[in-house]
Amino acid sequence: MDRVNEARRDRARVDGNIGPCPECLMKRSGSLRIFAAIMALALLPAAAFCQPAPPPDPASVTMSASENRSVVLAVAKVLRERFAFAERGAAAADEIEAMERRGAFRGARTGAELLALIDTQITPIVNDRHFRARYFGEEMVAGFSEAPPSADEVAAFHEEVGLRGGEIPDVRWLAGNVGYLRINMFLDAAPSVEKLAAAMGMLSKSGALIVDVRGSPGGEPAGVAKVIGHFVKERTATVRTQDRSTPSASRTFYAEPTTPAFTDKPVFVLIDGKTASGAEEFAYDLQVMRRATLVGETTAGAATPGGYRPLAHGFVAFIPMQVVANTITGTNWEGVGVSPDVEAPASEALARAHRLALETILKDAEGVRRAIAEEGLASLEPAQEL
User: Does domain 163-303+325-378 sit in CATH 2.60.120.10?
Assistant: First the structure.
């Protein structure tokens, strides 16, 4: 598989040590600033948007023992300073520095070899599904800034979101008057909010709704709250984020009741092992609210929000920097994932949820609604993925 296709594939992968590609952060501007600002509050393991060009190839980057040392010690430093859990960050940093003194990383001859050592030696110590190190190249990292993105950068970001359909690529009716909504990313950007409103309007007369977040790598808590707003009758707290280094950045997110309302309709959420981060929050929040039935497979288990931070010599690390907790349970899904209410292979989850939706509609449907639901259920025999 060539590196471009591999990058596209990795966009939606978050299975332990493998996550969405770091090159997905690279927008047309070639700057990390907008992504640092967005990612600081995003439940995303990496940024949302990939460009066709592949990232710099770390296998072509020659490394010396002193350069390896600089990169590894930078990992320890940033974990000590910025990791969401202070004691764990300090302990991890101490262990990493001890490993470096023992020469654990000196033998790496290329950037790729160093990344492999970090992955096998450091990632288990950090023990967070969002942590990862990547090589972006010195030119790219030189432009890193934690300053807010400019108006032009935000406009470019919104333009791309719009051109990607607001990251809501599929809205349709299934047999029996069941609505289907596919969400790739949970974003609070205007083009995504507009597409969500249009989609919900199109599906407003459906008798039940299926929201598909299989393979979704995440999104912003505010974007998650926007969707949940269609399913609640009153202002409802979703998650609380706490930032140890910037307490003023801590906040509670709320789902505001939004029309069209789906408050009295059954909702089913499709999940799988590649459903990660903010998409997991969406599933978790609705599950603990008892507002949706989750169908599919246990999710990835990546909860801690953060962002990329520069290391040395063109390397960066995604550092989990905020503690997130559901406001009902006081905890999250880190390391364990979100378990489905109804287990089904990912490839069969839609068919299973469709059947469940029709059976739920038929519990009290009358007249033409009942006739349409019965017609839809009959069309599922024999049951198969749609």
Answer: no
- Closest C-alpha among 319, 316, 320, 318 to residue 111: 316
Q: Which residues lie across from 183 on neighbouring strands?
A: none
pTM above 0.70, yes or no: yes
Q: In this predicted model, which residue has the larger pLDDT, 298 or 220?
A: 298
Report residue 306's pLDDT band, with 50, 70 and 90 as the boundaries. confident
> In whole angstroms, what is the distance from residue 303 CA to residue 333 CA?
6
pLDDT tens digits for 78-124?
999 999 999 999 999 999 999 999 999 999 999 999 999 999 999 99
Distance CA 91, CA 383 (A): 52
Contacts of 215 (CB under 8 A, 6+ apart): 12, 272, 274, 275
CB 268 within 8 A of CB 209: yes
Closest listed residue to residue 181, CA positions, set 208, 205, 209, 162:
209
What single letter denotes the amino acid at residue 237?
A
Q: Which residue has the tokens 């393991």?
A: 45
What does the pLDDT look like over 267-289, one tens digit per residue? 999 999 999 999 999 999 999 99
Rounded Cα–Cα distance for residues 188 and 176 (Å): 32
Domain boundaries, the chain: 3-142, 163-303+325-378
